[in-house]
Each structure stands twice: as C-alpha cells, then as structure tokens.
Amino acid sequence: MRSINLPTDLLRAFVSVIDLGGYTRAAESLGRTQPAVSLQMKRLEELLDARLITHEGRELKLTEEGEALAVYARQLLRLNDEAVAKLKGRSAKGQLRVGLPTDFSVAFLQEAIAGFVRENAQVTMSITCDLSRRLIDLLHADELDIAIALLSQDGNPYLVRSWEETPIWAVARDATVDRQDPVPLVTHPEGCEYRRRMTAALRSEGRDWRIAYTTPEIGGLQRAVSGGIGITALTRKTLLPDMRALTARDGFPAMEPIRIGLFYKHQRLSGAGLMLVDSLISRMDEAAEPAPSRAFPAR
C-alpha cells in the first residue's frame, strides 16, 4: 500500500469549515475565496476516497469518516503550528478562556494552568468551572477557547484528545452501608455523566435509589459524602482519605467508564492557546491512561 500524505493546507481548510460552520466563513478566515476552499475539500475527499461532509438544508454535517478525520486533523495541525511557533521563537501572550468540568477532578488541571501562567506572564487567564455539557455549549458559542469536558453520547464536536477513567462508588469511611433500598445518592444535577452511570448501574441490578443531595460542585459533593449524607461516584483522584470505595461485594456493581476530552476550535485558537493545550495534554497523559485506540470517536 502506497503512503498517503495529508497536506496541512487541506486539513486546515477542513477544520476551518467545520469549526466556523461553513465555506464562506472558512474562506474569510483563511484569506481565500469560497470556491478555492470548496476545491480543497474536494481534493481531500478524493485523496482519502471518502465523503467527509454532507449538507442537511443549510447545515453542514460530518459523516462518520469526517468525525474521525477531524480528531486527527486537529492533532496534526496542533503539532504543525507548535513546531512553527517553537522554531520562530514566538512567545505566549494574550487572553485565554478555559473551561474545566465540575463533574471531574480539576485540581491537577488547575495546577497545570497555574504553572503555565507563572511561566507566561503575558497571558491573562479566565477560567470557568461548570458541568461538561454547559462548557461545550460555551465553546460552541465562542465564549471559551479551550474546554476539558466529559464526552457525551450525542456526538463530540471539537474533540482533540480523550482519556478514560473508571468511576468508583464512594462512601464515608465510617459509614454503615445498608443493602436495603433505596440507595441515597449524592450527585451533580441532572445531565451529569456520573449521575447517569450510577443510576444505570443500580437499575441493572434492580435496585432503587433516591437523590439525597445535589450540588454542581465537586467540593460540595465530597463534603456531603464525607459527612455521611449518602453515596456517590468519584474517580480515584477525588476519593478523600475519610472515604472508602464500595465494590460488587458491597452490593454496588461496576459502572461504565468515563471518557474525558480536550476540545477547542483550531482556527480560533491563538499561539498561547496551543502552548496551553500542549501543557494540558502532558498533564492528562501523566494522570490517566489514554483511552483505547478507536477507528472512530465514541458516539
């Protein structure tokens, strides 16, 4: 099989079209004409022998192959642009708006961002903590430059990298666990992926539950569990010393893994943003095993 090289100009046109929502906006951003961008997209599809984008009325939709390529394209463009910036000696400056999920451990991510700010004094950072689904909405509306969020089942636009975590059941260390129903759950509001996994796991065992405590903040959730209000799902990194994990032997079945992703619109991201992305990816790689390779992104 002959090697196929993917030209970065074609990949940049592809990512610009999907990130900016159309050929005209992509052409304006790239300094090209709309027909020229359309021709680049045609060349890319011919090179890969695959349809990448379809049209539903006036809306562009990625095919399954297009979704897969988008993940790789953003990674390739990031590496290309980082190499250029490094060799040209460009420094990081400007403002960055970053979204971090309250439904995931953010302490080590905040440490990575704080270290980045210390090393790049000309960067002004604005951080928003919210539920993952809200962060993706803010990114889509160009109110965030970078978001780290839990992957949803309904598609994940702007995904660049993903990692996998296995949630565990957590309860106060000195709590007595009653196997009788209903299970008192401490959870984030409706829409949280951890909440969905807890209820799905209990439902699979035919167990009932009740919502004992709801909070949008991981700190509030941890305090509620430590105080004996109920049981929740956490990652190992967010299990506090005064908590203990529950397993199937305690009557709590294993939960579906959580996948967390890094999201951004490449065409909207500054050089400082690319440098921060590299730092965050390094930190996430250290903290969690990368998700298993897939030919196509999880849906």
Task: Walk me through this protein's architecture.
- By secondary structure, the protein is of the alpha/beta class.
- It folds into three domains: 74 residues, Winged helix-like DNA-binding domain superfamily/Winged helix DNA-binding domain (Arc Repressor Mutant, subunit A); 104 residues, D-Maltodextrin-Binding Protein, domain 2 (3-Layer(aba) Sandwich), CATH 3.40.190.10; 83 residues, Periplasmic binding protein-like II (D-Maltodextrin-Binding Protein, domain 2), CATH 3.40.190.10.
- It is 40% helix and 22% strand.
- A hairpin with a 2-residue loop joins strand 1 and strand 2.
- Helix 1 crosses helix 2 and helix 2 crosses helix 3.
- The longest helix has 24 residues.
What order do the helices and strands come in, and which of them pair?
Blueprint: H1 8-20, H2 23-30, H3 34-48, E1 53-56, E2 59-62, H4 64-87, E3 94-101, H5 107-119, E4 123-130, H6 132-140, E5 146-150, E6 159-165, E7 168-172, E8 183-187, H7 193-204, E9 209-214, H8 218-226, E10 232-234, E11 243-246, E12 258-264, H9 271-287
Parallel strand pairs: 3-4, 3-5, 8-9
Antiparallel strand pairs: 1-2, 5-12, 6-12, 7-10, 7-11
Helix pairs in contact: 1-2, 1-3, 1-4, 2-3, 5-9
